[in-house]
Amino acid sequence: MRLIVPLQGVVQGRGGLILGSLIPCALFYFLQLYLKRHRTSKPDPDPPSPSTSSSNLAELHRSSSRSSLSGRGSMGRVRVSSRAGLIARPNESPYYIGLDRVLEDPYDGVDNPNGIIQLGLSENRLCFDLIEKWVPDNWTESILRTDGGDLSITGIAAYQPSDGLTELKVAMANFMSQVMRRSVPFDPSQVVLTAGATPAVEILSFCLADHGNAFLVPTPYYPGFDRDMRWRTGVELIPVHCRSTDDFTLNITILEQAYGQARKRGVKVQGILISNPSNPVGNLLSRETLCSLLDFAQEKNIHIISDEIFAGSMYGSEEFVSMAEIVDTEDFDKNRVHIIYGLSKDLSIPGFRIGVIYSYNESVLAAAKRLTRFSSISAPTQRLIMSMLLDTRFIQEYLDINKKRIQHMHDLFVDGLQQLGIKCAKSSAGLYCWADMSGLIRSYGEKGELELWDKLLNIAKINVTPGSACHCIEPGWFRCCFTSLMPEDVPVVIDRIRKVTETIKFSS
Amino acid sequence: MGFTLSNQQQQLSKIATGNGHGENSPYFEGWKAFDSNPYHPTKNPHGVIQMGLAENQLSFDLIQEWVLNHPEASICTAEGAKEFKDIANFQDYHGLPEFRNAVANFMGNVRGNRVTFDPDRIVMSGGATGAHEMLAFCLADPGEAFLMPVPYYPAFDRDLRWRTGVQLLPVACESFNNFKITRAALEDAYEKAQKANIRVKGLLITNPSNPLGTVLDRETLKSLVTFINEKNIHLVCDEIYAATVFTQPSFISIAEILEEEEVECNRELIHIVYSLSKDMGFPGFRVGIVYSYNDAVVNCARKMSSFGLVSTQTQRLIASMLSDNEFVDRFIAESARRLKARHAKFTVGLEEEGTTCLKSSGGLFVWMDLHKHLKEPTFEAEMALWRIIIHEVKLNVSPGSSFHCPEPGWFRVCFANMDDQTMEVALERIRNFVLQDKEAAVVAMKKKKRCWQSSKNLSLSFNRRSRFDEVMMSPHSPIPQSPLVRAT
């Protein structure tokens, strides 16, 4: 009551305009101060503990509140960095949740036939027999073997250049040339070796962009980029949405729009990140699109990072064209082009951690080499892989057989999905297919898609990656990796999906 | 090409174009001298001997013998090939369970089994280099700081700061009490930070110390623990040289302090960095370990370890080797014995010419006192002396200023990265230099004495050596900018 009378006076003009604006402003200011104080002293709520019994949907937070870092009560006393706080909270993305679930309950034909079948990790198990046969025939001597024939541990134990042994760079350049069928071979002096493609991507991000800068990324894209490009670098990824009407190929007009919008927001775009062959769709960028991209990058004076890690996992009849091919044969400024590669997909050795940055930019090479001190490849592994890569006859045989087997699995799997009325996007590479299950989702949107994902994970017991985890603008698409399956597993998977599709059709 | 230069200048990041890598500092001059003219007993006997790299090559033969006798451990031999598929395909950032178990077992072994380590708290990283950076990312935000007792390993300036944006603040330690870390110095550094509005997130210690080779005693460790608990800041203990301790006083790990009853400590503040690069001599394997008593840090670091996972082939090899308890016990004992012998030979050889080193019980180096050879007690004189040592004496040693040492005249000299013959050559070169320098000093002194006597008719018992000693005892100057820091 006491407040109303003077306010009334103010409103009626007796207090004057100044008082009329001053008092509410002051009140507003003090309210903000009060709220701010209370927000910082209030302890953060504990995160919901991951429970295996409840649906995984509960684990997906929509709110932006930060969960507490560790057990109850310790948050107030011990502070870790805010970076750590963001990273340490439970994995929100269904991509990671699914991977964790499979670890808890992995399918095994004999030992655990009711376990979850992994279709969410793009790994290739189809050609292990070839490597297993090659290893005892070729790695008969100890890892201590050196080129000189003398057995010496110093060759593998002592400090090595952090960006990789020169001989391995040469072998890797040759291997990449072979895989991508290059007319102009890759140059070993432009190769920087890293402990996997994961640090390779992060190192490039650190070299090309400052905190707060951005990269344009066509969607859908590999969920791991959110971690690799952004986590520790503070860089932003701006999606450039591709659509099924375009077969999920990149449209330069949409790229222009995304760039323009970023500029309006005052965000500095430092480059474009593409994956070619694309992950998760599995299509290839045409020569024309690559040239258009280079034109665009040149015009805006930005970089292009081309992740070509699936270049050796082709199965279609389409021709793969590396960014290197375009740059070498056409008249473009090379300094803005950087290629990522690795042996995790094409040679199925993700555990060995072998990644490549291939750049035409001297300054980037110099900086990247220095940064490899945090992510070097283990020396004994380097020596071993070198001898495998140098066996070009074996590599050719491997690539040819691998292509046939991926094709075979692809056809089996895609046909199987077809029988259920599920179509896949056009693709000719990669270890997965991009399946359209939008017909099976009840409410057309991300929520419906995640409900379907949850059913597939918990009822059908298969882990697939929903399009939303890949930032796909159209709901209902799922990435299904089929190269970790044996041909006899395919009917099992199809049957399990059928159970879910029938339940859905029945209830609708 | 037809494009203007401005078109070709794509902007790169500050990290790429800045000097955070620290390689422009004069510290690397020595490395360049070695790289361009490396010593070889027969091919290049007058080349530069590398004494700036702390590498343990004394016990390679034991490792070699084990690897030859256990071909299946490498998985890439006929014997191990059947495991190849599973190992090559395993990319879980938790690491192979047998690897973590073996590392935990080894870490306990190295500490005389006085403590045990939980394999679930072990997180991999790309060498200790990667481990330190990873912890810096986990514990501190850009602009926040770690306290660092001086002198400290120069690469910390790069590893802890470059990509993380974290600061390093020195804690003063002096030679008169063997560079002990005192409570007063810690408080002083902490207060300075507070006044400068810098938030201190943690204290980083290396124990055994690099470059000193000394170990921290129980009292000091307890006082550090008390200090960090009071301030509620983290304590990162780099114990990478744990198994290089070859004599008394023996090594006491922070893990042991935590087990003591009267020590009150919030364990969540304690983190250990470890690696196999020094103790086993495997720097090329890139096996770095973060061991944290803090669940949130383990959780976060584990996810971050994706940027520096250890190759599973290496994990498998290490797991086999370190689970072989008989081999491990034999190796630790023999390695310590050889380090002791090499250290003794080296230091005795130096003392014969009157060159002393800080008394140490571990590490792969000595902290040599060459202040007598400085023309003046300044860091400029230290750098001048260092250049003489590199270019004339032809030894790449590391000047104390690059370690942020507050007093000029100290040099870190590594002795475990060469064979006996090379060490003899190095010793000979140092002896010759010391002798020549002494003679030159005597001649100069005589000249000066004559000048003084003739001009002022005074007879001073002027001793160049004692003048410098006097200066050294005066209150130490504030820690100067080291070449490395200047460069960044």
Task: Please give a structural write-up.
The complex is a heterodimer of chains A (508) and B (488). With 508 residues, chain A is α/β, with parallel strands linked by helices. Chain A contains 17 helices and 13 strands. Chain A has helices at residues 4-11, 16-41, 82-88, 94-104, 128-138, 154-157, 166-179, 197-208, 224-230, 252-264, 287-300, 323-329, 362-371, 379-390, 392-419, 446-458, 489-507, and strands at residues 117-118, 191-194, 214-219, 236-241, 269-275, 303-307, 337-342, 355-359, 423-424, 432-436, 462-463, 465-466, 477-481. In chain A, strand 3, helix 9 (224-230) and strand 4 (236-241) form a beta-alpha-beta unit. Helices cover 43% and strands 12% of the residues of chain B. Chain B has helices at 5-8, 14-17, 29-36, 60-69, 84-89, 97-110, 127-139, 156-159, 183-195, 218-231, 254-259, 295-304, 312-323, 325-351, 379-391, 420-456, 464-473, 483-487, and strands at residues 49-50, 122-126, 145-149, 167-171, 200-206, 234-238, 270-275, 287-292, 356-357, 365-369, 395-396, 398-399, 410-414. In chain B, the strands form 3 sheets. Chain B has a 7-stranded mixed β-sheet with strand order 2-8-7-6-5-3-4. In chain B, strands 9-10-13-12 form a 4-stranded antiparallel β-sheet. At the A-B interface, helix 3, helix 5, helix 6, helix 8 and helix 13 of A face helix 2, helix 4, helix 5, helix 7 and helix 12 of B.
Task: Please give a quick description of this structure.
The complex is a heterodimer of chains A (508) and B (488). With 508 residues, chain A is α/β, with parallel strands linked by helices. Chain A has 17 helices and 13 strands.
